[in-house]
Design a protein that fits this description.
mainly alpha; Recoverin, domain 1; 152 residues; 53% helix; motor protein; 8 helices; 4 strands; 2 domains; single chain
Length: 152
C-alpha cells in the first residue's frame, strides 16, 4: 500500500491476524470494525457497513489485501473522533471542572447525540463502563471514556 508505512502495514497485519480464526489471512466481515478499532481508529457503524462490514457472522469473508485499502482510507477519515476529542466534549458537562459529571447527563448524551444508542445499548454501556455514582449522582468521566474506548 503506497499510503501506508511499513510500520502501519505490520500493525494492520497483526490486528487482522487476531481475528483470522483459521490462519488463512481471511476474517469474517462482522469483525471489520473490531480490527479497525484495534488499530486506534474509531469509525462509526455506518462507515463500517459502507466499507464492507456486516452485522451478522458468516455473511461475508474479507482477505488481508482487501482490508489494507480500507485501513488506509479510515486512517485518512477526519470525521472519526479520538479519546481527546470525546474528553473535550464531556468536559462541557463538568460544571465544577473537577473531572466529574452527572451520570444522568452521560446517559442523556449517549441517548441523544451522534450515533444514538437504544435504551438497552445505553444501559449495557453504562453497566460495563461507568463507575458508581457518588452521593450527588456524579461520576468521573475520564475512566468511563477509557473503558468505553477499549470496548470499541
Amino acid at each position: 500500500m503506497a499510503d501506508l508505512s511499513s510500520k502501519d502495514v505490520e500493525r494492520a497485519e497483526f490486528a487482522f491476524s487476531i481475528y483470522d480464526e483459521d490462519g488463512t489471512n481471511v476474517i469474517d466481515a462482522v469483525n471489520l470494525g473490531n480490527v479497525l478499532r484495534a488499530l486506534n481508529l474509531n469509525p462509526t457503524n455506518a462507515t463500517i457497513e459502507k466499507l464492507g462490514g456486516t452485522k451478522k457472522k458468516g455473511e461475508k469473508k474479507m482477505k488481508l489485501d482487501e482490508f489494507l485499502p480500507i485501513f488506509s482510507q479510515c486512517k485518512k477519515d477526519k470525521e472519526q473522533g479520538c479519546y481527546e476529542d470525546f474528553l473535550e466534549c464531556l468536559k462541557l458537562y463538568d460544571k465544577q471542572e473537577n473531572g466529574m459529571m452527572l451520570g444522568a447527563e452521560l446517559s442523556h448524551t449517549l441517548l441523544s447525540l451522534g450515533e444514538r444508542l437504544t435504551d438497552a445499548e445505553c444501559e449495557e454501556v453504562l453497566k460495563d463502563c461507568m463507575d458508581t455514582e457518588d452521593d450527588d449522582g456524579f461520576i468521573p468521566y475520564a475512566p468511563f471514556l477509557k473503558k468505553m474506548m477499549v470496548l470499541l
